[in-house]
């Protein structure tokens, strides 16, 4: 294998200069850096990541746990994380938990066995692994929670203000003249499910709107369950004039139910979705929706973890709360 010494000899510089050039560090002129990189490519030099990690007790690997990799929201977040981490020469190991708490533990054990430098986690909905996360933090594992929080775990986190996001959606419908509003929410025991449902209840109460339990159902953040619960709501003799769906799969399930019942949006039913899948922009009508700043969430989570890893002695735990925004399109009828 080609070594740094071989490249140094070829270019006529020290091994320290070659190392700086290959790792994009200061102290090397642009001319020398270009010569070193060109020589490395020509000679077929490949960085020995394992040796690099052993030398400074790092593997330059980060573990990422998500509840559903098929969810476009998580795909966007991970893409943003990757951009930040790649720039610092870190690799990602992505694990799909699927809301399974046992699978979550197994993946955490796997990632620890692989000696990852840190974890970025959207924990499983039930939150049953609190003691596992506490123990990992106590033993020095760097963890950043995103999308969902776990009580009493002293680590960095980045979430959106879920309550405010749904509160604003209810206000938007109320301002359009809607007084009878239903909802399909997620998993009530999860952080996001609980917070979004709480925001809905709070808004309905504060705006003097009737909260009808038969119009509010849990779709468990899945398309199929949301479809079934939407049918239950919309097939009643009296149905709401507007519905709020509380994630992208829930929105899709609601729209399937509307289609199968041959209802028209927004004439028969107004809809506010959540997240911003591509189909929401091009459907007819296009869907008014609450948009999470997925890119900012991913970049913030990755930046927090890098700071915790690389500046361990001075890093202070941070809890970042970002704002979602309502994007108005064509799926809400003005009743005023």
Task: Give a quick set of tags describing it.
12 strands, 336 residues, 13 helices, alpha/beta, Rossmann fold, six-stranded parallel beta sheet
Computed structural class: alpha/beta
**Strand residue percentage:** 15-25%
Give the helix level as a range of percent: 40-55%
Count of DSSP helices?
Answer: 13
**What count of domains describes the coordinates?**
3
| Physical arrangement of strands within the biggest beta sheet | 2-1-3-4-5-11
Largest β sheet strand count, sense and barrel closure: 6 strands, parallel
Instruction: Quote the CATH topology of the largest domain.
Output: Rossmann fold
Order of helical and strand elements:
HHHHEHEHEHEEHEHEHEHEHEHEE
Cα(first) to Cα(last) distance is 74 Å
**CATH top level class name of the largest domain:** Alpha Beta
Number of strands: 12
Any idea what the shape is? Answer: elongated
Using the CA coordinates, give the radius of gyration: 25 Å
Low-confidence stretches at least 5 residues in length (pLDDT < 50)?
Answer: none
């Amino acid at each position: 294998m080609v070594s740094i010494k071989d490249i140094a000899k070829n270019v006529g510089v020290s091994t320290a200069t070659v190392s700086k050039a290959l790792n994009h560090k200061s102290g090397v002129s642009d001319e020398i850096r270009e010569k070193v990189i060109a020589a490395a490519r020509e000679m077929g030099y490949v960085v020995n990541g394992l040796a690099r990690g052993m030398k400074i007790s790092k593997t330059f690997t980060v573990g990422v746990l998500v509840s559903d990799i098929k969810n476009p929201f998580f795909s966007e977040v991970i893409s943003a994380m990757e951009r930040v981490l790649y720039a610092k020469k870190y690799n990602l190991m992505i694990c799909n938990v699927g809301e399974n708490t046992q699978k979550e533990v197994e993946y955490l054990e796997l990632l620890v066995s692989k000696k990852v430098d840190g974890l970025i986690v959207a924990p499983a909905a039930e939150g049953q692994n609190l003691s596992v996360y506490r123990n990992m933090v106590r033993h020095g594992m760097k963890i950043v929670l995103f999308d969902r929080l776990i009580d009493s775990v002293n680590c960095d986190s980045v979430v959106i203000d879920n309550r405010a996001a749904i509160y604003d959606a209810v206000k938007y419908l109320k301002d359009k003249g809607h007084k009878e509003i239903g909802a399909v929410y997620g998993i009530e025991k999860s952080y996001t499910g609980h917070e979004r449902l709480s925001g809905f209840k709070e808004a309905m109460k504060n705006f003097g709107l009737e909260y009808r339990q038969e119009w509010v159902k849990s779709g468990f953040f899945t398309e199929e369950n949301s479809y079934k619960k939407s049918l239950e709501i919309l097939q009643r003799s009296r149905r709401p004039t507007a519905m709020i769906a509380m994630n992208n799969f829930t929105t899709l399930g609601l729209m399937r139910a509307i289609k199968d019942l041959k209802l028209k949006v927004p004439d028969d039913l107004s809809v506010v979705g959540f997240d911003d899948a591509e189909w929401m922009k091009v459907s007819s009508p296009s869907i008014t929706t609450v948009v999470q700043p997925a890119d900012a969430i991913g970049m913030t989570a990755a930046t927090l973890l890098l700071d915790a890893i690389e500046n361990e002695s001075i890093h202070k735990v941070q809890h970042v709360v970002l704002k979602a925004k309502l994007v108005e399109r064509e799926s809400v009828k003005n009743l005023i």
